[in-house]
Amino acid sequence: MVEGDIEACFDSIDHTALMGRVRRRVGDRRVLDLVKAFLKAGILSEGGQSRDTDTGTPQGGILSPLLANIALSVLDKFIAASPGGPNFTQGQRARRRRQNLANYRLFRYADDFLIAVTGTREQAEDIRTQAAEVLAPMGLRLSVEKTAITHIDEGLDFLGWRLQRHRKRGTQKHYVYLYPSKKALQAVKEKVKTLCRQDTNLPLAVVLHQLNPVLRGWTAYFRHGVSSATFQYLSAFTWRQVFGWLRRKHRRSNWKNLRRRYSAGRWWPADDEVTLFKCAKVRTHRYLYRGNKIPSPWPNGTTTAAAV
């Protein structure tokens, strides 16, 4: 696995190369002039000083994510057109493996990307060098220190996920598993702790209204993997934090009174018709690789923007 890291991606994009790629899709000069004006608008610093933007696209701007993806699409096209890339059939890829040639897959989200290489470490180093050469005309550089090559058996973190190959329990077969990384789990635990350190004079319903969106969003993101054990752990952790907050709120009450008041005599906290979101109840399923099965809505060739 080639873990790609681009140095200052948004600040380094070459305007000339970027506009060249935009012109391949958009023929309306008014739209092109607006995009160019956006790139050249400059940045207002904290001191009120205006700084020219000769390269890059302002991070946080409304067009910046789109323009960055247009610039990085050179890497997508390169991998797609490479021998052993996603356009090769299963039979062609099997033939390349028999010939000790590498096959490739690209996984990219904005400027974070992985290149999966079925081959040797030398072949992974070669595709890393080629990727750097492809990105260079766009003004983008790979970080030498952070662009690492990792074997899937060792595992790596990507977009909050831990990707690692393990032996399936009870068999001799090995599979790649995706589950929440320790860093992602620690981050959500810190959020839960912070919300459960609030003023104990608040009603429990206020705390639950703040906790539930955090837990619901986190589990919705990580439900597409092997996350059941993590969800159960997070559910138990949140329960301890909430009841710890209740114990501090009612220092003279015992467990029986707290349960009767906040759990209807049971164990799961609720208040004012608001119930703590139960992470352990979230069902998980593996995300299936769809690759190029998703059709592109854009026809080949230049698209002319419609006049407004």
From TrEMBL:
InterPro entries: DNA/RNA_pol_sf (IPR043502), GrpII_Intron_Splice-Mob/Def (IPR051083), Mat_intron_G2 (IPR013597), RT_dom (IPR000477). SUPFAM superfamilies: DNA/RNA polymerases. Coiled coil: none annotated. Pfam families: GIIM, RVT_1. Residues 1-163 form the Reverse transcriptase domain. This is Reverse transcriptase domain-containing protein. It comes from Streptomyces lacrimifluminis.
